[in-house]
């Protein structure tokens, strides 16, 4: 310390410091080191999340709006269509450019890319592209490419085919996102609903939400009393019950779902029991339909409702109920006015958790549902693995993500975001 | 207020009440207790003595396994808590965190379905009574501990219950605030003419506030009396040791009449003591003497008993000095001596003679030396 002693001693409230560096700076440095250490500890997880979560989601979102493959295969055609009005067939130049592009594409073995991409938009264009690519044109013997091309395949005489080419010029497109919402942009640029026989995704989206909402309600109704029991029993009993709640977590999802097949099938335990009791005279259809989906999903998701509820209820001390009854409230009123409002953060967290998990469900509906019970994830999986239409799969994924985020925003607005208590 | 014709009748009567949780051990062994209208009764005792169970049975949260409880002469043993019309203040306040202060206070009136304007007026009055008029729109979490406890008081009083129960309501507050709230509760009791049953394990709180104190131990009321009677005239060794500071001296009764007995202490000295809780010559007894009733100046008027010993330790405490004296027989005894600049201070190692009056030395039931330490440690 730089104490000078005697009369020249510094005033008592001055901050003393060793060496030349002011104390403030040294404190700040120490704080920075502490922060860096903390960051270093979370960095591996951060990198892991970045690589496995943020990057794939960003990639998916990009795929739902990116559209660059066609313009690589048909560069001249796209250039020729820049000034096209989209109302009548394009001019001779566009037909000529298409014929040239496809001849080149055939040589490069890339015609199939254009064929697949254009077929997403207008069905039948796959064969139109492939037949045109295989057809040799002699420039000298072809007075009108327009007539010649239409002669090879009649689709090229349709404005829609050319609209599809121009719509797919990239690098960005709204085609997949519009498709995911059952919308279509025609050659002139107007957006309209697709015909009823082709519209499926809005129905699927509505079904996904409906099933998720019902499952969430079932979970709440079934989980609330269990959570209450867990929170109010002495630890010895509560621990035993908790193991029963957690038991499903230790079993594979596939095994649990398959177990429901065994239980609910026509010769399953439930039907056998009902037949034996004489309540029914022929087996009820309990699986491969909506009943199976709801039962199995509720079962699988129940712990996600019970755990947040339990943790909230555990923090509500019994003296609140005692106080309410001592103040003259009958038990039912005390429950509704004192206990339930304090459970709300747990109810909100449980419902949100179950609902968000439910709208992404794939395996369970796929195994125990019928054709009309498939949820959005089923179609995403279908487009990724079966039809290799990653753009549409990504767009459906983006719609799901958007719907979830929107819901969360509304929900946290209603409940007050900070009040949501996760587990 | 109800039933003026029953003015003589106690407000609450416990008769032959027992309570056991497991069917084997009794938490409350035998309880006969009358609580008078308008009195401030404190149930005092160490934890596990049955005082809280007694309060919970009165509130209706526990059911006696035997006997019955009457409120205004009417048996309430099977009345559920919400129909008893008893106000209650809890140790942790139990204010509803999702309601404002005003909503908390309005709660008992709303469940009684009072008209809105009456509720508003009564809430305002109750908050005024605890000097929290301006805090109605706050949440309980925004208040200090003392303010929260005042809200809990207002809420328990707003529906004008015949009886208010308080379960260690000041336990969570610091010492200064606790003393302040003690006075506040006492003043509310006097002003509103409330009947209060108050549970605490803090003897100074009990002595400060109460008209009567019931000292619980082992599921039984050891003594129920005014604070001064409890301190001056404890009827057994537990009360003597639990209330205030106390010296215990063990010995054997050698002679006794109606009021006085002669006791031969274990070191051989003979003292005369007031006969309180001894029944036969030859029986063991424990003498109880308060530290301030032992005099070091031997000429003290009326102090006929004498003991000699050696000063072991002195502790200076401003207004008095505590002197720890080792008696000839080996027992340790504490003496409070007045301190002052003109007074000599005893020094460790000094030989000392102590004198005390017969009536200040009470012959009580015998306690084993180990037990004494236990009983002593609970009286803080």
TrEMBL record, chain A:
GO terms for cellular component: plasma membrane. Gene3D superfamilies: MetI-like (1.10.3720.10). CDD domains: TM_PBP2. This is Spermidine/putrescine transport system permease protein PotB. It comes from mine drainage metagenome. Pfam families: BPD_transp_1 (PF00528). It is found in: Cell membrane. Keywords: Cell membrane, Membrane, Transmembrane, Transmembrane helix, Transport. Residues 205-411 form the ABC transmembrane type-1 domain.
UniProtKB/TrEMBL annotation, chain B:
It holds the Pfam family ABC_tran. Residues 12-243 form the ABC transporter domain. GO terms for molecular function: ABC-type polyamine transporter activity; ATP binding; ATP hydrolysis activity. One of its GO terms (cellular component) is ATP-binding cassette (ABC) transporter complex. Its EC number is 3.6.3.31. InterPro entries: AAA+_ATPase, ABC_SmlMolc_Importer, ABC_transporter-like_ATP-bd, ABC_transporter-like_CS, Mo/tungstate-bd_C_term_dom, NA-bd_OB-fold, P-loop_NTPase, PotA-like. SMART domains: AAA (SM00382). Keywords: ATP-binding, Cell membrane, Hydrolase, Membrane, Nucleotide-binding, Translocase, Transport. SUPFAM superfamilies: MOP-like, P-loop containing nucleoside triphosphate hydrolases. It is an enzyme of class 3 (hydrolase). This is Spermidine/putrescine import ATP-binding protein PotA.
């Amino acid at each position: 310390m730089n104490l000078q002693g005697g009369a020249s001693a510094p005033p008592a409230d001055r901050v003393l410091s060793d060496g030349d560096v002011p104390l403030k700076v040294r404190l700040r440095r120490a704080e920075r080191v502490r922060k860096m250490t903390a960051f270093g500890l979370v960095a591996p997880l951060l990198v892991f999340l970045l690589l496995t979560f943020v990057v794939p989601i960003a990639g998916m979102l990009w795929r739902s709006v990116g559209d660059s493959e066609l313009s690589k295969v048909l560069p001249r055609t796209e250039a020729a269509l820049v000034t096209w009005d989209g109302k009548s067939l394009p001019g001779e130049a566009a037909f000529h450019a298409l014929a040239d592009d496809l001849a080149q594409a055939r040589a490069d073995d890339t015609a199939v890319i254009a064929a697949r991409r254009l077929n997403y938009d207008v069905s039948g264009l796959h064969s139109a592209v492939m037949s045109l690519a295989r057809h040799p044109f002699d420039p000298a013997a072809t007075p009108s490419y327009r007539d010649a091309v239409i002669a090879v395949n009649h689709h090229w005489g349709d404005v829609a085919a050319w609209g599809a080419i121009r719509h797919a010029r990239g690098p960005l497109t709204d085609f997949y996102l519009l498709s995911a919402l059952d919308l279509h942009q025609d050659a002139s640029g107007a957006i309209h609903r697709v015909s009823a026989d082709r519209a499926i995704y809005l129905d699927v989206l509505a079904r996904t939400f409906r099933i998720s909402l019902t499952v969430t309600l079932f979970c709440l109704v079934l989980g609330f009393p269990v959570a209450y029991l867990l929170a109010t029993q002495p630890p010895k009993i509560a621990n035993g019950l908790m193991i029963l709640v957690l038991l499903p977590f230790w079993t594979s999802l596939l095994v649990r779902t398959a177990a429901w097949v065994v239980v609910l099938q026509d010769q399953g335990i439930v039907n056998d029991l009902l037949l034996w009791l004489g309540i029914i005279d022929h087996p009820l259809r309990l699986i491969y339909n909506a009943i199976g989906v709801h039962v199995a999903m509720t079962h699988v998701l129940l712990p996600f409702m019970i755990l947040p509820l339990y943790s909230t209820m555990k923090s509500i001390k019994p003296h609140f109920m005692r106080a309410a009854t001592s103040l003259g409230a009958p038990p039912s009123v005390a429950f509704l006015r004192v206990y339930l409002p304090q459970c709300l953060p747990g109810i909100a967290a449980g419902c949100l958790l179950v609902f968000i998990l439910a709208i992404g469900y794939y395996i369970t509906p796929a195994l125990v549902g019928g054709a009309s019970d498939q949820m959005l994830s089923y179609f995403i999986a279908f487009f990724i693995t079966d039809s290799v239409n990653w753009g549409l799969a990504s767009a459906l994924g983006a719609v799901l993500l958007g719907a979830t985020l929107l819901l969360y925003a509304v929900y946290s607005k209603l409940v007050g975001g900070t009040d949501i208590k996760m587990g | 207020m109800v039933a003026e014709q029953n003015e003589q009748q106690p407000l609450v009567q416990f008769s032959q009440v027992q309570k056991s949780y497991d069917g084997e051990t009794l938490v409350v062994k035998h309880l006969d207790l009358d609580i008078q209208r308008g009195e401030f009764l404190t149930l005092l005792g160490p934890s596990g003595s049955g005082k809280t169970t007694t309060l919970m049975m009165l509130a209706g949260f526990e059911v006696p396994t035997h006997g019955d409880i009457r409120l205004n002469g009417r048996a309430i043993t099977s009345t559920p808590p919400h129909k008893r019309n008893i106000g209650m203040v809890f140790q942790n306040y139990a204010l509803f965190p999702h309601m404002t202060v005003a909503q908390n206070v309005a709660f008992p009136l709303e469940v009684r379905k009072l008209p809105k304007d009456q509720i508003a007026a009564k809430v305002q009055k109750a908050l005024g009574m605890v000097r929290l008029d301006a805090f109605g729109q706050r949440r309980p979490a925004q208040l200090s501990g003392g303010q929260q406890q005042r809200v809990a008081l207002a809420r328990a009083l707003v529906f004008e219950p015949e009886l208010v129960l308080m379960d260690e309501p000041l336990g969570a507050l610091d010492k200064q605030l606790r003393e302040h709230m003690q006075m506040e509760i006492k003043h509310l009791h006097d002003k509103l003419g409330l009947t209060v049953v108050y549970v605490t394990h803090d003897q100074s709180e009990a002595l400060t506030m109460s008209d009567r104190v019931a000292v619980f131990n082992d599921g039984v009321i050891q003594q129920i009396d005014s604070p001064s009677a409890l301190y001056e005239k404890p009827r057994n060794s537990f009360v003597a040791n639990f209330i205030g500071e106390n010296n215990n001296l063990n010995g054997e009764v050698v002679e006794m009449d109606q009021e006085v007995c002669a006791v031969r202490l274990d070191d051989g000295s003979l003292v005369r003591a007031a006969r309180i809780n001894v029944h036969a010559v030859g029986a063991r007894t424990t003498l109880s003497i308060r530290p301030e009733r032992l005099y070091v100046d031997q000429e003290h008027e009326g102090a006929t008993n004498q003991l000699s010993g050696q000063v072991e330790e002195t502790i200076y405490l401003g207004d008095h000095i505590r002197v720890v004296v080792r008696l000839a027989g080996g027992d340790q005894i504490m003496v409070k001596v007045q301190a002052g600049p003109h007074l000599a201070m005893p020094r460790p190692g000094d030989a000392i003679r102590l004198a005390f009056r017969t009536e200040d030395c009470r012959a009580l039931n015998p306690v084993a030396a180990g037990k004494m330490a236990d009983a002593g440690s609970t009286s803080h």
